[in-house]
Design a protein that fits this description.
It contains six helices and six strands. By secondary structure, the chain is α/β, with parallel strands linked by helices. The chain has a six-stranded mixed sheet. Strand 2, helix 4 and strand 3 form a beta-alpha-beta unit.
Length: about 190
C-alpha cells in the first residue's frame, strides 16, 4: 500500500530526470549550531530522518561525523549515492512511520519532515519512532516548515524544537492542542 508521503519519490524523479536538484545544497545552519552548542562528538551516532538530497548530511560526513541519512524516497537516496559514492553506506531508505530500525542514536534530527505528515496519527508515530531510537539523555532536533495567518510577511517560518528524550512523549499532547501563536523553543 502506498502512503501519501511517498509521493515525494515521484517528485524527485521528475526533477532529477530534468537534470535539476530539488533544493539548494546550502546546509541548514541550526543543525551544525546544535552539534557545536551541545558538544556532540564525531564519535556520536547521528540519524537524519528525511535527508532529501543530502544537503545537511554531506557537510557532517565531510567533517568526520558518523551520520546515517535516511529518507522514504528511494530516488532521493539513490541521488545522494550518485552524488557522493564515497559516502553511499551512510544513506538508506527508511519509512519511520511504518518501520523499526535496530539502532539507537545520540542525536536525531529532521529538517522539514513533520509538516509533510498530514495525519495526527502519522505525526505521533513519527515522534514514537524518534523516542524509541534515541538513547536516554540524548538530543533530537526537529525543524518544521509552517505557514498560516499568524506568520507575518507570508513567509515560511521554522519552528525549532530541541528536546531531550525524556520529554518527547509530551509532543503527543502538544500536537492535539490548538495554539494560536507558535514561537521557537530553545
Amino acid at each position: 500500500m502506498k502512503y501519501y508521503y511517498e509521493a515525494y519519490n515521484q517528485r524527485y524523479m521528475i526533477i532529477h530526470e530534468k537534470g535539476h536538484s530539488w533544493s539548494s545544497d546550502i546546509p541548514t545552519p541550526i543543525v551544525s549550531d546544535v552539534i557545536q552548542k551541545h558538544s556532540i562528538s564525531k564519535n556520536a551516532s547521528i540519524l537524519e530522518i528525511g535527508c532529501g538530497e543530502g544537503r545537511d548530511a554531506f557537510p557532517l560526513l565531510e567533517n568526520g561525523y558518523d551520520v546515517l541519512a535516511t529518507d522514504i524516497s528511494s530516488e532521493a537516496i539513490n541521488y545522494c549515492k550518485y552524488l557522493r559514492p564515497d559516502y553511499s553506506i551512510h544513506f538508506s531508505i527508511l519509512d519511520c512511520i511504518n518501520d523499526h530500525h535496530g539502532q539507537h542514536y545520540d542525536f536525531i534530527y529532521s529538517v522539514a519532515v513533520i509538516h509533510m505528515l498530514v495525519s495526527d496519527e502519522d505525526r505521533i508515530r513519527f515522534y514514537h519512532f524518534i523516542y524509541d531510537h534515541l538513547l536516554d539523555g540524548r538530543l533530537a532536533l526537529f525543524l518544521l516548515n509552517i505557514s498560516g495567518k499568524n506568520i507575518h510577511f507570508g513567509v515560511t517560518a521554522i519552528l525549532c524544537v530541541l528536546l531531550e528524550r525524556q520529554i518527547l512523549i509530551l509532543l503527543e499532547n502538544i500536537l492535539r492542542a490548538k495554539v494560536d501563536g507558535i514561537h521557537p523553543i530553545d
